Amino acid sequence: MKAKRLLGIYSVLGVVILAFSVSMIFSFSNLRKYEELAQTELTDTTWILAQAEVELIRFLYALDMYMYGEPGDVTKEDVVEHMEIFWSRLPLFLEGREGRRIARIGYAQETARTALQTLERLEPAVTGLQRGDTEGYRKLRAELHGLLIPMRRTLADFRQWQEASVGIRTERQGRIYAEIVVAFIGIVVSSACLVLLLLHEIRLANRARTAEHRASTRLSEAIESFSDGFSLLDKDNRLVLFNHRYREMHAPIADLLAPGVEFETLVRARVERGLVPDAAGHEEEWIEERLRRNRSPQSDFEIRQLDGRWYRVSERRTRDGGCVSIRTDITSLKQRQHDLADQQQRADSANRAKTDFLLTMSHELRTPLNAIMGFSEVMKQEMCGPLGNDRYAGYADDIHQSARHLLAVINNILDISRIEAGRLELDEQAVVIADEVERALRLLEDEAGEANIRLIRSIDAELPALLGDPHKIQQIVINLVGNAIRYMPAGRRVIISAQRDGEGGIVLSIEDNGPGMTAEEVERVISPFVRLSNPMVRQKDGTGLGLPLVKALVELHGGTFELKSKPATGTVALARFPRGRVLSEDRLVAGGSAAGPA
Prior knowledge:
Strand order of the largest sheet: 2-1-5-4-3
Largest sheet: 5 strands, antiparallel
Low-confidence stretches: 535-539, 586-598
Structural class: alpha+beta
Number of helices: 16
Number of strands: 12
Order of helices and strands: HHHHHHHEEHHHEEEHHEHEEHEEHHEE
């Protein structure tokens, strides 16, 4: 009887132990599947972080191609589309279940918010970027490229967090095991719960596998969509994957392209088959240099192909020792650079020929003009006797005035040509601005009086001397004041002033209250041989060389020339001489010799 009872108890205990063991086995299996699910969720988070980095790289690539590629390759709409795709990835860092998970990772959400703020701030610059705006492009790319580092740091922080998460899950798993040991669950309840849980886990596992397959497909499609050649090497420098564009760029060695082939094998094959013209005659050295670049990528470089095409190669090492390579076809860019250099050379040659022609012709014309002026002066003063008719004296005066005007034109052309050719030199000495202004205005007083124009001086009495050419400074004043007189109605005034500026230099200002000019007209009159015609003012002879010559003479002194004007208000011409040409009074030498800077 006792044996039967013990047998019954042992049987019950055996059944209970067996049921508990089966329950524990199924629980272990369940926990492992939960671990797989958690890993899948981490993979989704990794995909979100990596996809944001990929979209940023694609955005930067689209921006580069828009600036330097063919006009039809990448449009501004493509650049904006890539910006918006990258933009759309960032809210995933901040919202939903993935956002809550990412919030635990270092500065991930702060990085996302910074990126969103940067995109919001740069959006007008991106949408308004033009192909020729190289400076704007460099600023944009510098700021956008600066987002890559925090993105990559976020991905690295997530991997560290993932490792810590594994430890936490292991600790939790141990606690669950302990709870299973101390907690007794009835066979029926345990079995029922186990069955329900298994059904639920199967459904979740199917979902996870579907999501993983979808993510893998998206990554493959993204790589295939690159218009550049893309390849990935492992830490042993063996080819892992590549896209169709990479295969097209390596068509002559397509028979060797396969996962597992060594990078050195591909390099040697291209050299041995004569596909790299730059390697001819020093093949081993070129191969060694190419392998060195691959082992330690520093910056992008260019490779010329046998068929004349050019590729820009960008290589970067991954954290696991692999290497990502992107090849961009820049053949059209190289051709444009060559064409531009050729056009620049032809333009420089034409400009030199023009300058030499003007210099030669100016010298040739001055000799007969001097003779015409001399003989007309003799006739006008009747040095050899009376002319016999008063009209001849008037004709002689007209000849003399016309010759003087033509000589002034030739002298202006000659000065501009000398400046362009770098042959005009300054006779530098200590110049008192007030004296040179007064000498120039004495030559213009008669013309101003005839035109009923008031000349008002406003020169700072304590203005220091200036190291410069007095005749050139007089010429600057004569041209600027003469222009103001000729292009103003009667009864107006011209103010000539000179004073120190905020940087320690001297600024010479000629201000009038004439009809003024529009911004477009101001830009035009700075160009040689441009004259503006206004029927409301007096018409005078001119060639349009006065303002360009003034600008050139001021710049020859190391200064800057600025013209400000508004219609119906007037015009202000500013000649700024730098601080380095201002002389201190206590170091001026008697006789007007140069002294040190003030």
